[in-house]
Automatic annotation (TrEMBL):
PANTHER family: PEBP (PHOSPHATIDYLETHANOLAMINE-BINDING PROTEIN) FAMILY PROTEIN, UNCHARACTERIZED PROTEIN YBCL-RELATED. Coiled coil: none annotated. The lineage of its organism: Bacteria, Pseudomonadati, Pseudomonadota, Gammaproteobacteria, Lysobacterales. NCBIfam families: YbhB/YbcL family Raf kinase inhibitor-like protein (TIGR00481). InterPro entries: PEBP, PEBP-like_sf, YbhB_YbcL/LppC-like. Signal peptide: none annotated. It comes from Stenotrophomonas chelatiphaga. This is Phosphatidylethanolamine-binding protein.
Length: 202
């Protein structure tokens, strides 16, 4: 199975249009176009996950003007998008079809292919302590890495072909729930990644 995009080149920089933040604040936050082919026989649905594996693990180093986040600081995953139960006949998500703007406190009913379900991304936890921003962040919210990070962040888009039409998931669900539910049901997967940084020196 192959995953391609007219919005981003594999390994190339992600355009501001598809990011949640830029040097001035919030960015357009449109989901990139994604298309997949070479789907195996027996596919009954797809799942999609987008993860940044380069997120700093020391929270009090983020966003400070008096220091940079060291490149070698331990990193963790940050989920930007999780969607399940994408119908077996879907082969493309158009740019901006699932997200077209950042919504404070999260999108309550993000768009998506008929029958699909959007999960919580990790902005839900990131903004949990901020009364102006706290909420359930469903669907796609794009890159917004710390401006003081010495590392360029990578964003991996992964599409999984599954042999079940629906996954057994709680409401709401997150990427961990999807990974557990699709164990033993993955027929194929495809991925691509882009990069993004707000550090002017990189």
């Amino acid at each position: 199975m192959q995953l391609t995009s007219t919005s981003l080149g594999n390994g190339a920089a992600i355009a501001r249009e598809f990011a949640a933040g830029d040097a001035d604040g919030f960015a357009p936050d449109r989901n990139p176009q994604l298309a997949w082919s070479g789907v195996p026989e027996g596919t009954r649905s797809f799942a999609l996950i987008c993860v940044d594996p380069d997120v700093p693990t020391v929270a009090d180093t983020v966003g400070r003007t008096d220091m940079t986040i060291p490149r070698d600081q331990p990193r963790c995953d940050f989920v930007h998008w999780v969607m399940a139960d994408i119908a077996a006949d879907v082969r493309e998500l158009a740019a901006g079809s699932c997200s077209d703007g950042f919504v404070a406190k999260g999108k309550t009913a993000p768009a998506g292919p008929a029958g699909s379900r959007q999960g919580l991304n990790d902005f839900t936890g990131w903004f949990a302590g901020n009364p102006d921003m706290a909420g359930a962040y469903l669907g796609y919210d794009g890159p917004y890495p710390p401006f003081n990070d010495e590392r360029v962040h990578r964003y991996f888009f992964r599409v999984f072909a599954l042999d079940v039409a629906t996954l057994e998931l709680p409401t709401p669900f997150n990427a961990g729930d999807v990974h557990r539910a699709m164990q033993g049901h993955v027929l194929a997967e495809a991925s691509l990644h882009g990069t993004y940084t707000l550090n002017p020196s990189l």
